[in-house]
Amino acid sequence: MNNKKLIGLFAALGLTLSGAARAEDAPGVFKVPGTESTIKLYGYVQLDTTFDFTGRDPNVEGNDWAIHIPNIPLDNSAEAKVKKNQLYMTARTSRFGIETHTPTKLGDVGVKLEGDFNAANLESGQTFTNSVLFRLRQGYGTVGGLLVGQSWSNFLDLNTYPDVVDFNGPGSIALLRNPQIRYTLAIAPGVNLAVAAENAPGTDGNDYAGSDNITKLQTIPDFTANLGFSGSWGSASLRGVTMNFKRATVTGSPAVLDPAGTTYSKQGYGAAASTAIKLGGDTLVLLGVGGTGIGRYIFNVGLSEGAIAKDTGSDLTLVDAVAYHAGYTHVWNPEFRSNLVWSQTFIDAKGFGGATDNKRMDQAFVNTFWTFAKNAEFGLEYAWGQRKTFDGSTGTQSRVTGTFHYNFF
Fold first, then answer.
1. Looking at residue 374, which CATH number applies to its domain?
2. β-strand 208-209 against 309-311: which pairing, if any?
3. Can the peptide bond before residue 33 be classed as cis, meaning omega within 30 degrees of 0?
């Protein structure tokens, strides 16, 4: 192909895309030539910089560099005494996504695929080229009120997720994306009910105390329900979840399931209520959540050793946990906003708590965001956190985080 033809081809493609962009009333949306489908591209590039005065997670590459209160070193440990004033910079939260919409006789069919580079990375991190691993965040299809695929758990209310710089934020939330089948029904103006069957993973035993001889079997999905309200005043949500736990004995080395072993089954449950209230240009967010065996539906609990169930040797006892957060956003002007967030998590091991198991976790955030361009902002935050164990030990985190965030459009 000669240069003139090549230039003509790119010119035609540019005219097609520019015309499609004018036809669609959203940035990054184009009509796919020869089809009735539209495609939207979105994403951002982000650089996060953290400076931990104390309490850095021992494994920022393979575990989590963002706030991870359940596993910060205890204050009296060698890890805590040596690893102070630690700096870490990463672009691993940068992400991109694609959405398509196609009109059909069943209604609009939507598809969403989104990923970032924040997967656990044990092999090629800072020592080599700062490579990070891609991971799937969202991957689902919709038609009408039906959603099938991987998305945020139906037990999460994103409207009341606090506005924080840290990638994880407070551990009171269900920071969980699940493969699921969900149906949302509009009950009345501003009122929706969503019900879902969500993946209920098995486990290698880390969720249990004294777990060397047990494993969790996945037999039925977790079931969630979310009743949502919205209006000019803000939004609110009432949610419930139930999940089945089954204990099975393993034996031998390497360990295998013992068909002659005893199996116990228990049903866990949880509930949450949350709201985001508009106060002029400001916003107040509130969340309360709790349950028995609720585990991974509270971020701080699901990451705490032995905080979901206890094997008593003759039964399976599910652990109780409650958490809450309160956050306030003040908008100073179109360019600046600030946030103050407080959160606590409490775990009741029903008398079976190990000495170094987490009993309570407290967190506080204060930050300011500066939108310095139409598609870019800078955020600066101080975060404090502390975990307390059943033997009275504490682990304390003190951190400053800065982030540069650049949207594609």
1. 2.40.160.10
2. parallel
3. no
